[in-house]
Amino acid sequence: MNRSTRRTVLVAGAANLVVAATKLVAGLISGSSAMLAEAAHSLADTLNQVFLLTSLRQSNRPPDRDHPFGYGQERYFWSLLAAFGIFVAGAGFSVFEGILAMLKPHGHESPLVAYIVLAVSLVAEGISFARAVHQMRGEAADQGREVMDHVRRSPDTTVKAALFEDTAAVIGLVLAAGGLVLTQLTGSSMWDGAASVAVGVLLIVVAYRLGRDSRDMLIGHAADPDEQRLIAEEINRTEGVDDVAELLTMRLGPDHLLIAARASFADDITADRVEEMAEDIDRRVGERLSVKPHVFIDPTRRRPPAQRPGFGSDERVYGHSCSDEDGRATHGDGPGTTLGRRA
């Protein structure tokens, strides 16, 4: 996945760099505020591709003493910076330039140059957009999901950022072209300024969505409900497990998932057997979810059937403390020592 994502980011970066230069020249020649706003947009996108490439390199570093689970969450930090860059460098300049154009109308020179650049830019951005969509479709097919559902649920904010930026770029080009056409038809630069503001608003929406997704992942986002049910199923169908009393999950990056489960076992289960079961669960979850799981199992006392919440009943426990037979809250130092393994 990292190789495919890197290719998508490189294609987007190359397209943005070429398009930014041509838009800037065209904007200066034609005097179009919308074209200058689009140039700022493409420059911001180019900088963001640098952030995203950095995130790929940093997140692939192996685990060490200070970061025993690796650096997968670096992806979310750099994606958050990319969202900030879109908001400040892209949206901020676009809105400012648009308002300035509406307050101080000006004439346009050589609009033909702007139209040619828009056409060339649309081809370049279209290629980058097609690449991002192709990757998303492939990932969605692997997960058995619809494309839009996968975009919403995917934990890979790097490829999301590339897709969002390319989508905004294509829409922004259409808006800029519309502003130029209306300006030529009416003779008023108000339309050009309005198109520039519209591009800025579009970038604000993209920055907000990407920033929100990155923030959610940085503060510790659980696996989605379908994935949690799958994990619970794999633990429950393990020989020797009576039920799962509690399941906690947290993403450690697009390709890593922390899984901590409190489960009750048969009375004759041994510590060595629990270790083997954790390894088996780790392997099976990794095969079904296509992530690298880090599984920890905490054995608890067996409960009477009426007191077992489990995952086969309507009382599903996702991330809440359980109680032992005396009604006391049990945590990691409750009955039994935390056993298991980290992959």
TrEMBL record:
Species whose genome carries this gene: Actinoallomurus spadix
Where does it primarily localize? Answer: membrane
The UniProt entry, under Pfam families, shows: Cation_efflux
Spell out the residue ranges making up region: Disordered: 298-343
What keywords would UniProt list here? Answer: Membrane, Transmembrane, Transmembrane helix, Transport
Q: How does it sit in the membrane?
A: Multi-pass membrane protein
Q: Lineage in the entry?
A: Bacteria, Bacillati, Actinomycetota, Actinomycetes, Streptosporangiales
Residue ranges of the TM segments: 76-100, 112-130, 162-182, 194-211
Q: Which InterPro entries match?
A: Cation_efflux, Cation_efflux_CTD_sf, Cation_efflux_TM, Cation_efflux_TMD_sf, SLC30A9
Task: Supply the name of the protein.
Answer: Cation diffusion facilitator family transporter
Where does this protein have compositionally biased stretches of type Basic and acidic residues? 313-331
Q: Specify the Cation efflux protein transmembrane domain's residue ranges.
A: 9-219
User: Sorted alphabetically, which Gene3D superfamilies does this protein's record hold?
Assistant: Cation efflux protein transmembrane domain, Cation efflux protein, cytoplasmic domain
Q: Which compartments does it reside in?
A: Membrane
